[in-house]
Amino acid sequence: MSALPVIPEPRSTSVTGRIAPQYKRSRSPRTQFEMLAWLFMRLSGIVLVVLIFGHLTVNLLVGEGIHAIDFGFVAGKWADPFWQFWDLAMLWLAMLHGTNGVRTIINDYAERDAVRFWLKVVLYAASALIIILGTLVIFTFDPCPVIDGVRHVADYCPAS
């Protein structure tokens, strides 16, 4: 019988089992931020599953299904504050959940501090921009647009 192959040590550990000095990234004492980020990922994931399946059920299964989705469908849905906040919660949680996941990947794979810093700056800026623009779209969306001075009134718009 042949001997089992020897698995080499991971590159980030030394012979003593400690992290080699060149791979230590944090010079400050550990806080509970990573634990809270880990907990946020689990809790937001559960809430997102409920929000997404509710969204898919209402949009694809109730009524005429996918054939009913058009401007009027979205306008009618967003005329109700409940659906505005539902979609807002889905947007915010999905963006924060995804941003936290990408932040973790950047921490794991970006080896140089400067690269890690700038990748996170770009990530946070893009996430903030999407959250702000998405929130503005949800709350400033006019379901009864005025085109060429004529207010287009549909069944979901108040009579004017």
Automatic annotation (TrEMBL):
Task: Tell whether Metal-binding is among the UniProt keywords.
Answer: yes
Xref: InterPro entries: SQR/QFR_C/D, SuccDH_FuR_B_TM-su
Query: Keywords on this record?
Result: Heme, Iron, Membrane, Metal-binding, Transmembrane, Transmembrane helix
Q: Which domain of life is it from?
A: Bacteria
State the SUPFAM superfamilies in the record: Fumarate reductase respiratory complex transmembrane subunits
Q: Which residues span the membrane?
A: 35-62, 82-100, 121-141
Q: Which compartments does it reside in?
A: Membrane
Pfam families for this protein:
Sdh_cyt (PF01127)
Q: What is this protein called?
A: Succinate dehydrogenase hydrophobic membrane anchor subunit
